[in-house]
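Entry:
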Amino acid sequence: MSKADIVVIGAGSVGANVAYRLAECGAKVTVLEAEAPGGGTSGTSFAWTNSFHKTPRDYHELNTASMAEHLSLVVELGGGDWHKQEGALAWEQEPLGRAQLKETVERLGSWGYPVEIISAHDARKLEPDLQIASHVDEVVFTPSEGYVDVVPLIGRLLSHAVRRGARVLSGERVTGVIREGMRVRGVTTESGARFEADMVVDCAGPATDEVARLAGVEIPIDRVPGRLIYTTPVASTLRRPIHAPGVHFRPDGGGRIVLAEFGHDQVWRQSEEPWTAEQSLAAVASHFPALAGARVEAIRFGVRPIPRDERPMVGGIPGLDGFFIVASHSGVTLGPLWGLIAAAEILDGVPDPRLAPYRPARFLS
């Protein structure tokens, strides 16, 4: 099936990786993006590449495998200025949080994940601008983690796909799926265009379930909002993602810092209490004094597509040929692996045994 006509819906991290691998294998690929590549969830992601809190173990290992694939992409795509891997730091201040962090470190160590406990003094050697409470004597360092400049990565993937014959069409929102009996034959779009295909791959992010419904398939996707705050430039040497009590932050280029506060996302989901960006900025500044005097430059809300059981959903639909779904949280970390697996399964027809627990069939009666 290497010369198959394939439509990929969505040009975020997942769709771009899938399109790149399919084109690399010789498929004739058309990418349909409702807005602009990287303009959806991927462009509003904290983009921390990690497997820190990923359980159970088989899911953890999918994430670590994809972290390795990020490194492979650096070589394949001719350099990786979009890939920043200098580790990450995490600590807690309260007894319960410190105990939970210790349990996480023990689990990760038993699974062979690179993780170290270092002193607060050594953490400040790595990141001199941090302020760590005097009673905190242990900081967790995870050297294989980092972050990704997602939109430049998407651009690189799609550029390489185009070199291999792919088409990338922006502003083409899918509004219909063409079916002949129990086979999908293509899609139609809001513009009135018709795209016939041997396979349609649904990588539509928060709209994954809407596209599936057009094909006659009901799958449960939750839309979980999250807020990222971007500061004005500050004079800082910050190089890594930092997970301080209740907050996380990292550099975002040009001296800007991107940050989030866990409390805001909880309040966002549970009530309508105001929770200003300035509150979150102040919470981060207590751990990162370089932000003193900084202002909020931009706020972006992302909607994360998460299958109802919070596990990936990858594969075809039993009884419906020509339709393949790729949906998961952690689309930035997992995107490179999803690209490899989807291309192999679609073109070679060989199921990847690692995905046995994560097929769409688990949601279908």
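The chain has two domains: 5-77+149-220+308-363, 85-144+224-305.
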